[in-house]
Amino acid sequence: MLTSLNLLMAFVLFAFVSSITPGPNNTMLLASGVNFGVRRTIPHALGISIGFMVLVLAVGLGLGELFKAYPLAYGVLRYVGASYLLYLAWKIANSGPLTSAEPGTRKPLGFWGAAAFQWVNPKAWVMAVGAITTYAPSQGYLTNVIVIAAVFAVVNLPSVCVWVMFGSALRTVLQDPRWLKLFNWLMAALLVLSLYPLLFVESGFV
């Protein structure tokens, strides 16, 4: 079981590294930190952590096997995810200046949107499947899946918030609309580039 201290510490390291490294979630959080600040981006970060925890539970309880049995279903999900990523990239690229919009007219991605995004995020699927297949021994399997999902949520939240705080720190540097526009287009381009593993790399059902 995952009660072994060595196995647990190895998993915590895996969760930290996979959570804090660049990917679609962290790219969007960096952009949101710049455009909206820490406070308005907190629901987005919470949605990522809770949404990913639910995804890990679902994979552990058999969703991964369902996609293996019906690969067409996952193929549809991949292209829905690609479309949504392109939409989010377009929104980031067309974000206005930090001070131009009236309150309430520029809105960051909210809790439910961020949680739902985990289901079409290619990196999230790789992380979830990797965690379950590597760190969930068959003995006490259900308990292990629950522990993995909970630990991932605890480790993931502060990890992704690092990107939010980094983005917020850049707000003073990006007050110039020209630099902000360049930054937002760069973040949008990185988000589009993240489609490569989603559409062109095959690794099992992910």
Structural description of this entry:
The structure is a single chain. This protein has one domain. 77% of the residues lie in helices and 0% in strands. Helix 2 crosses helix 4 and helix 2 runs parallel beside helix 7. It is mainly alpha-helical and 206 residues long. The radius of gyration is 18 Å and the shape is globular. About 2% of the residues have low confidence. This is LysE family translocator. InterPro entries: LeuE-type (IPR001123). Keywords: Cell membrane, Membrane, Transmembrane, Transmembrane helix.
Please count the helical segments. Answer: 8
Order of helices and strands: HHHHHHHH
* Distance N to C terminus: 26 Å
Number of strands: 0
> What share of residues are in beta strands?
under 5%
Structural class: mainly alpha
Shape: globular
Q: Indicate the percent of residues in helices.
A: over 70%
Mean pLDDT: 84
Low-pLDDT regions: 100-104
Number of domains: 1
Biggest pleated-sheet summary:
none
Based on CA atoms alone, the radius of gyration comes out at 18 Å
Primary descriptors:
mainly alpha; LysE family translocator; membrane; transmembrane; 206 residues; 77% helix; transmembrane helix; 0% strand; LeuE-type
